[in-house]
Amino acid sequence: MARNVNVFITNWHWTGSNVPTPQAQVNVDLEWADDEGQPHSWEGTVTFPNDLQQVPVAWVKEALEDLMLRAVRKRLGINES
Amino acid sequence: MTIRYCGPGGDNGNSGLTWALRKLTLNGVEDIPVVAGDLVYAGPGVYREQLTVDVSGGNTYSTGTVSVTNGSKVVTGSGTTFGGNVAVDYMFHVRLYASGTDGVANGTSTFTSAAGNFQSGMIGKVVQVNTKGAYLISAVASATSITLSDPNSLGWPSAGSGLTYSVMSGEGHYDVESQDSNTQLTLPEPWNGPTLTGLSYLTFNPIRYIADVTGEHTDGVGGPVRITGSDNDQSAARSYCVSSSAHDYRVFRGINLDTASGRLLSSSSDDHWVLEDCKFQNLDDSIHMAGTSLAWTVRRCVFIIAKIVHLTITHSANHDDAGHVIESCLFAISTDDVVRVIHVGGLTFRNNLVLGSGSDGFDMSTSPTTGQAAHITNCIFACVHGAAVEAAVAGEIVENFNTFSANTTNRLNVGVGASSVTYPPLFSMPLLLRGFKFPWQFGELSEWSQVRAIAGSGEPAVDLLGIPRPATASKNSWGPIQFTDTEREIGTIHSGSASLKLADAGRIQIKRPVTAVSTTFSGYVYREANYTGNLPQMIIKQPGQADDITTDTNAASQWNLLTTTLTPTASPPWVIVELVSRNTTTSGNYDVFFDDLAVS
Questions:
Q1: I want to staple B147 with a disulfide (CB 3.0 to 4.6 A). Which of B139, B381, B386, B467 is the partner?
Q2: What percent of chain B has pLDDT over 70?
Q3: CA–CA gap between residue A80 and residue B73 (Å, rounded)
């Protein structure tokens, strides 16, 4: 497990959108309380990648960066998982 | 200046001009309305309201230029008429050391400006060259030419002329102690920045809200002053604790803010705010600073628990040379970033502790104008889940003299500072003994910490607690709290079996109850032969009163009596006895011992 990791990410650009990717679907049962303490719940189905169309591109970029960094760190043995 | 009061037991129908006739609420005072120069004492208690800031301070003055000298309280004006324009309790601020639109780059480490703004005191500062990048000034060849260093490996700025550039001061606001003449002001604290001349500046007359935590101005008892967004301390009932839009020149000191459904402090385009000694814990963001805000000083504040971000500095478009200074603060535990910056440049972040972030530590998440940057020094970043410092693009953060430990990633798109380290902070841990409660300061460094005495860059003169740091750079601590090496000594004693040892420059404080009668404080001091610098002191401190200072003027290597007699004020009913070593040497024997302290 390595320590003191410094990372540089450069040349970020989208390279295309028509790539085959596994598709997934989960059933979500979400419960939460608002600021007044009132309980709420929601039950539904969330799909990947279809539901990503609803989030800002910056979110996708950040999540993809994290995923790509995590993948390369595991490959190099910097992180175990 | 009008002094106004608010607090529990008050009535908003009162005048607010005395404690007996205090307003009930903060909004009750605000809506009088307060005006420039007003000083509001908030009495101890809980304020379950959202303070909506309605007015600005003012009386601004910026004609001419000033010269400042490191370590001096005197500000000398040129072309100034301070008389009638500046007065005691105004504030003094320098946002920029240099700026211009005639910068010339030639693809080398040389950068020039015919305006002649450069001075040797600017070495080590960041020069922001818009469209090119942020660099450090490594040498000043002349007033028109500097040599750059490239901490982010951007490469030297490509050839260009008519470049907009700036050198931020990185200094926060100072109070004005006196206006001495049309060309001289005196500050209560020495100028902490470098010696420079010909600086643009601003003075203004603020509106101050001061938490009277000692009770000396209000209820005579003291205690926390708390603004909360909750009505039951279980859930939030209001969006904010303090909100403001386009109201400038405000000071808040000593206030606790907590439990809002939105931000604790929601600001939009407010200039020259000073937050000192404030504490934040929230269900959402702590501070959200939006718009074209200029020159905030956030110093000696504690941020613990934010559901999202502790401090967001954001604007919808690029905002250059903002001049915000965040120093000597303790940031702990946020689910998202600790500091998030969007489109804003010209920031200084120094001597802060960033501990336990769910995402990034200091995140320039959306790029500012190319060349604009944040300068981060003397900080401790530990246990950050994301990147401790992160720039959207390399060059937006210049970091040096920081330690990074136990972070998932130390730096993302940030060059490694030449003097930064990866030492664990090694905090002081509580002394746990079943059945006993020993004092413990969260975030204080231990004797084993390798950043407890280490040279940094431009440390603030005082730490999180407002206690002066040592004069010698290598004896200063990184992070917000200055370490003082105190030990129980059993070898060098005046009488009895033990004395108190200060192993190097530092200060220790002992609280002592008193009454308003003539009281003598005495003790013996012994300094070893190689002690160098200003001599040891015993200082009797009481809030609101001038310090009573007794200095050891006798020979080294012997026990010398320090004694003073004074009559404390009745409120608060205690004093602090501060024992001080001001040693500056780093070789030989320079311990200072205190023994047989007595109060009679």
A1: B139
A2: 100
A3: 55
